[in-house]
């Protein structure tokens, strides 16, 4: 694949739109190289004014593109695959799916076993170029996997994993955004309880969480190593940590991730 090739994003919701904007912002491609589809094109008028192509004709868009990104809801996928099946050319097209709970085999069963499918799981931080994206495939060429990796590296970090871990990646990385945001929200509420105004408490909680994450990323450190630096004997930090653990902080987060992974695996089959 070359960057000059045409990209079709079928299903322009939050992830699809964030990817489109991110690719343009990173100068991976130009708006004119991307076609966005949605059942109601009136909802894409702002994107059209920015130079993106818009359409509600999925089959026609696929026929005029090379890189096909499936970004609809799981329960809409079978209808979409039925619409584009006749337009897919296995020698010309590479299909990328960002749909939770849908395997490469599920897609090839509808489009043909010789179609190269790459499964990708980004998260909503893709909108600011900070996604944690996981990639897997059971038949795509090394060249195509490399190019798709480069594409998503323009909007965050990428890791290649085995496909059987993709639903787990959904829970940890995609659902995980909400989990960490809820933790930040709870911290800001705690800040209000101890005397700060709401806007102050939120700003302090957000920056503290960002700093904590950067300590690990920039120094390749481990959480417990950094925790040890701020927990002194009989101190206030260890007292707070232990109270949180007594209330089930870690175990509730672990249980939530496990349940989300189970649910993610059922989204396509159970709707």
From TrEMBL:
Describe which pathway this protein belongs to, using the record's wording. Amino-acid biosynthesis; L-proline biosynthesis; L-proline from L-glutamate 5-semialdehyde: step 1/1
Q: What class of enzyme is it?
A: oxidoreductase
GO molecular function, a single term: pyrroline-5-carboxylate reductase activity
Q: Provide the E.C. number(s) assigned to this enzyme.
A: 1.5.1.2
The residue range of the signal peptide is: none
Could you name the domain of life of the organism this protein comes from? Bacteria
- Reaction catalyzed: L-proline + NADP(+) = (S)-1-pyrroline-5-carboxylate + NADPH + 2 H(+); L-proline + NAD(+) = (S)-1-pyrroline-5-carboxylate + NADH + 2 H(+)
Q: Where does NADPH bind?
A: 58
| Gene Ontology CC annotations of this record | cytoplasm
Compartments reported by the entry:
Cytoplasm
- Keywords, sorted A to Z: Amino-acid biosynthesis, Cytoplasm, NADP, Oxidoreductase, Proline biosynthesis
Q: Residue ranges of the Pyrroline-5-carboxylate reductase catalytic N-terminal domain?
A: 6-100
GO process annotations (BP) = L-proline biosynthetic process
Q: Which residues form the Pyrroline-5-carboxylate reductase dimerisation domain?
A: 163-265
**According to its UniProt record, where is this protein mainly located?**
cytoplasm
What Pfam families would the database entry show? F420_oxidored, P5CR_dimer
Of which family is this protein a member? Belongs to the pyrroline-5-carboxylate reductase family.
Quote the function comment for this protein: Catalyzes the reduction of 1-pyrroline-5-carboxylate (PCA) to L-proline.
**Record-given protein name:** Pyrroline-5-carboxylate reductase
């Amino acid at each position: 694949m070359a960057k000059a090739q045409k990209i079709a994003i079928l299903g322009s919701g939050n992830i699809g739109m964030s990817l489109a904007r991110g690719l343009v912002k990173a100068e991976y491609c130009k708006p004119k190289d991307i076609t966005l589809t949605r059942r109601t094109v009136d909802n894409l008028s702002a994107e059209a004014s920015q130079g993106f192509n818009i359409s509600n004709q999925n089959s026609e868009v696929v026929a005029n593109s090379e890189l096909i990104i499936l970004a609809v809801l799981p329960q809409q996928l079978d209808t979409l695959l039925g619409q584009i099946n006749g337009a897919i050319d296995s020698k010309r097209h590479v299909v990328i799916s960002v749909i939770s709970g849908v395997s490469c085999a599920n897609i090839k069963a509808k489009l043909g076993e010789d179609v190269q499918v790459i499964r990708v799981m980004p998260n909503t931080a893709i909108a600011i170029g900070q996604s944690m994206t996981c990639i897997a495939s059971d038949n795509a060429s090394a060249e195509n996997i490399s190019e798709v990796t480069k594409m998503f590296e323009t909007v965050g970090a990428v890791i290649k994993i085995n496909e059987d871990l993709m639903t787990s990646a959904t829970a940890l990385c995609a659902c995980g955004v909400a989990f960490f945001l809820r933790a930040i929200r709870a911290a800001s509420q705690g800040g209000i309880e101890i005397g700060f105004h709401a806007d102050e408490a939120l700003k302090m909680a957000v920056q503290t969480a960002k700093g904590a994450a950067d300590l690990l990323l920039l120094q390749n450190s481990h959480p417990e190593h950094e925790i040890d630096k701020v927990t002194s004997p009989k101190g206030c930090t260890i007292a707070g940590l232990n109270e949180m653990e007594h209330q089930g902080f870690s175990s509730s987060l672990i249980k939530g991730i496990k349940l989300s992974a189970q649910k993610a695996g059922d989204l396509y089959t159970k709707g």
